[in-house]
Amino acid sequence: MAKKKQKLNPLITYEAPKSPVSEKFRGIRTNISFSRVDNNINSLIVTAEKPDAGKSTITSNIAITYAQSGLRTLIIDGDMRKPTQHYIFNETNTKGLSSLIVENGEPDDFIKPTHIENLFLLTSGPIPPNPSELIGSTRFKEVFNKLKTQFDMIIIDTPPTLSVTDSQLFSKLAHNVVLVIDAENNNREEVKRGKELIEQSGAKILGVILNKATLEKNTSNYYYYYGDE
């Protein structure tokens, strides 16, 4: 019988900050910071070329490392088609990004503090019939620019690039993208196409996170969320 892989807590950087996996996430944060030395990075897109690559877990853990470093950090669940962040943080999703864009309210009325110091969450909100139109609206651009004045770092979890145009629309505003690739199940041509779509938006891919790669047995029992490219 095949041995099952150990299932990790999705917020491992919070629950086990001294683990090898958490150290990898801090390494990702450092690499992001050094990737554009001529331009301070205060917003970031985390996406994948296809579903089930683990981008939402990656998003939350990268965000936690920024919060742990003392930066006021906001996670935006920009996946208004298949939202996940409210499950990860055990929050309700009765209002969030979609309702913030549609309603003429203030971001503070929709953003929730998490149980982690310096970390805040804007859930996706109710699933709308027209996510791409909301993301591409002037209203969202105004909201996003205001949020950038309120937070040191904004990290957006978006739908996969090959599925819909949402990630490209977000990338036009945030400019900086990290691409998550499933180490066990990926297609070279799909990855290349996902990369091209991001670059067509004018955004820069800061790096690639190879997810679901196994850790060497002599190092730990954990399985990587992240492995070197």
Number of strands: 7
Mean pLDDT: 88
Instruction: Profile the largest sheet.
Output: 7 strands, mixed
Outline type? globular
Assigned CATH class: Alpha Beta
Number of domains: 1
In CATH, the topology is named Rossmann fold
Describe this protein's structure.
- The protein is an alpha/beta fold and 229 residues long.
- The chain has one domain (22-211): Rossmann fold (3-Layer(aba) Sandwich).
- It has helices at residues 12-15, 20-35, 55-68, 85-88, 97-102, 131-135, 138-150, 166-174, 188-200, and strands at 43-48, 73-77, 112-113, 119-122, 153-157, 176-182, 204-211.
- Helix 2 packs across helix 3.
- The longest helix has 16 residues, at 20-35.
- The radius of gyration is 17 Å and the shape is globular.
- The two termini are 31 Å apart.
- Mean pLDDT is 88; it is low at 1-6 and 217-229.
Structure described in brief:
By secondary structure, this protein is α/β, with parallel strands linked by helices.
Structural descriptors:
single chain, 9 helices, globular, alpha/beta, 229 residues, seven-stranded mixed β-sheet, disordered C terminus, 7 strands, Rossmann fold
Give the SSE layout.
Blueprint: H1 12-15, H2 20-35, E1 43-48, H3 55-68, E2 73-77, H4 85-88, H5 97-102, E3 112-113, E4 119-122, H6 131-135, H7 138-150, E5 153-157, H8 166-174, E6 176-182, H9 188-200, E7 204-211
Parallel strand pairs: 1-5, 1-6, 2-4, 2-5, 6-7
Antiparallel strand pairs: 3-4
